[in-house]
Design brief:
- This protein starts with a helix and ends with a helix.
- Helices cover about 50% and strands about 10% of the residues.
- The chain has a 7-stranded mixed beta sheet. Strands 6-7 form a two-stranded antiparallel sheet.
- Helix 7 (about 160-170) packs parallel to helix 9 (about 195-205) and helix 14 (about 275-285) crosses helix 16.
- The mean pLDDT is about 95.
- It is elongated and about 90 Å long.
- The chain folds into 4 domains: about 1-140, Beta Polymerase, domain 2 (2-Layer Sandwich); about 140-285, cca-adding enzyme, domain 2 (Orthogonal Bundle); about 285-335, no CATH class; about 345-390, no CATH class.
- It is α+β, with helices and mostly antiparallel strands.
- The chain is built from 20 helices and 9 strands.
- Bound molecules: adenosine-5'-triphosphate (ATP) and magnesium ion (MG).
- Adenosine-5'-triphosphate binds near residues 24, 40, 42, 118 and 156.
């Protein structure tokens, strides 16, 4: 609130007679004492978007008409975006997207938000507005729907996913009973959401510091039945969280899938990128086993074959493999695999004709080189190549 860009923004709005309040995530996190620097800043305003754009223009502040129909203007102040949204009320809901009307009633705007602690507002001098006692719920870790949970989910079924996502980030057990029951009653409607939306919510849930309970509750409510039938419990996720050196939501997703999960099918359903689906496929592969107990030489071979990051992924996920996984992980994070010092050209130089045999020979030298723990230099590899050529 003290930042010069924020002051400039509020001054611009106030000069034009527009009342503005921070709302949503930035207030919620500020109240909790959590970081707000990397979070999007939402501001609610009591005048229509055209008025807001005029006010910003009058103060020479840049604005983008992000979604005028929905009341949203993005102000760019000192390079930083602020989403300014006119107070709204729902006119019509269809289970996902609402038709809204602008209003100047702060309470109406608050009433269409999802959870009590997401309807916290603060004005520029720090005065807090908390129409549904969201602060108490936040302190207690209670994710509580504003109004009747079933009604609110019928208006927008995405709220089922948001319920568990916010529980993962802000909740403390026990989970709010009426909210959970309503989610369970409405879980059957989630199939008609879009794969992109579901994936975004799921990965954000998995990014929470300790999301296992929230995911398990989600499964219990039946909220994973349609989108993630491969779900197989959170035991491996818990173990993974105890080991991981870097948080990665896709790796966490891999940890809750049953053996034999078809990464391609899952990727299509959840609209993963090709790269994400490929990565998932390698993470889920059980073969070849990593041989964690095999020590440094086996680790190096594994890192060479899979690449540093995928080897680390597999290592973190293979929570039942015996062996010193910490040392193996440290190696995966620090060791750069060398390149095989000979290539097809060297075989041709020995008088071989281009063809399959060249590839097979180089592969054989590669296996020998890896088996020797990468210690053979170019001269030694060439000598071995020559020996192979002669002996065949
Ligand atoms: P974060 O940005 O960390 O996800 P946030 O609270 O800012 O948290 P957004 O999805 O950015 O979440 O939404 C901003 C605010 O808009 C929310 O705090 C909430 O008040 C309201 N909101 C967003 N989505 C919905 C929804 N589906 N139903 C009701 N209110 C919603
Ligand atoms: Mg937000």
């Amino acid at each position: 609130m003290d930042a010069p860009d924020v002051r400039a923004l509020f001054q611009s709005l106030n000069q034009a007679g527009i009342a503005a309040r921070f709302v949503g995530g930035c207030v919620r996190n500020a109240v909790l004492g959590r970081a707000v620097d990397d979070i999007d800043v939402d501001v609610a305003v009591d005048k229509p978007p055209e008025t807001v754009m005029r006010a910003l223009a009058a103060s020479r502040l840049k604005s983008v008409p992000t979604g005028l129909k929905h009341g949203t203007v993005t102000a760019i102040v000192a390079g930083r975006p602020f989403e300014l949204t006119t107070l709204r009320r729902d006119v019509e809901t269809d289970g996902r997207r609402a038709v809204v009307a602008f209003t100047d009633d702060w309470l109406e705007d608050a009433g269409r938000r999802d959870f009590t602690f997401n309807a916290l507002y603060a004005d520029a001098d720090g005065t807090l507005y908390d129409p549904f006692d969201g602060r108490s719920d936040l302190a207690a870790g209670r994710v509580r729907f504003i109004g009747d949970a079933d009604t609110r989910i019928t208006e927008d079924r995405l709220r089922v996913l948001r319920f568990f996502r916010f529980y993962a980030w802000y909740g403390k057990p026990p989970l709010d009973g009426p909210g959970f029951d309503a989610c369970r009653r409405n879980a059957g409607a989630l199939g008609s959401l879009s794969g992109e939306r579901v994936t975004k919510e799921l990965l954000r849930l998995l990014e929470a510091p300790a999301p296992a309970d929230a995911l398990a509750a989600m499964a219990e409510a039946g909220a994973l039945d349609h989108w993630l039938p491969e779900y197989d419990g959170v035991a491996c996720l818990r173990a993974l969280i105890g080991r991981e050196d870097r948080l990665d939501p896709l790796r966490r997703l891999a940890s809750v899938l049953e053996a034999g999960t078809d990464a391609t099918a899952l990727g299509k359903r959840l609209k993963l990128s090709t790269q994400q689906a490929l990565r998932l496929d390698v993470m889920l592969a059980r073969e070849p086993a990593l041989d964690v107990a095999g020590g440094t030489k086996a680790w190096r071979a594994g890192i060479y074959h899979l690449g540093n990051n995928l080897y680390a992924d597999r290592l973190l996920l293979d929570v039942d493999e015996p062996g010193d996984w910490r040392a193996a992980l440290a190696l995966a994070r620090s060791w750069t695999p060398p390149e095989l010092p000979v290539s097809g050209g060297d075989a041709l130089a020995l008088g071989l004709a281009p063809g399959q045999r060249v590839g097979a020979l180089i592969a054989a030298v590669g296996r020998w080189w890896i088996d020797g723990d990468f210690s053979a230099d170019r001269a030694a590899c060439l000598a071995h190549l020559e020996q192979l050529v002669r002996s065949r």
